[in-house]
Design a protein that fits this description.
It is built from three helices and nine strands, in the order ββββββαβββαα. The chain is of the alpha+beta class.
Length: about 170
Amino acid sequence: MEYWDIYDKNKQKTGRTMKRNDWCLKDDEYHLTVLGIVARPDGKFLITKRVMSKNWAPGWWEVSGGGVQAGESSREAVIREVREETGLDVSGCGDGYLFTYHRENPGEGDNYFVDVYRFELDFDESDVCIQTSETDGFMLADADQIKAFADQGIFLHYDSIKKAFA
């Protein structure tokens, strides 16, 4: 069973945890997620396509990310998520942290912070090994291609993270 730390409105741990996806958060309580943008020196970004069996946004494009496990740091989580979903190791790419945004979903028990990272990594397509239970493919896209997916309504979190593709 995976557990997540519960944070207050100031992004400080409360000392309590919740079961993953057990949407029980009260007002001013949050869990923490991460997004890891992987950029190549040629200006292309690694994006993945969500499997069609996902309950939410099946078939949409996204960058790697997921929930921060209890006791795990944000950076540890983003490195783990990128490695699990793409096979790439970004641990040697420097800090990578860009910014945090948050979402509040009153009455749904699912309020969250999102720490956004961008890592510069020189890699080939042959280095990518996708997690087939989560991902139905990948592509190397430039910022214009990603914006085009967003304009079609099929790129997750774009409005919140678009400055990371600049």
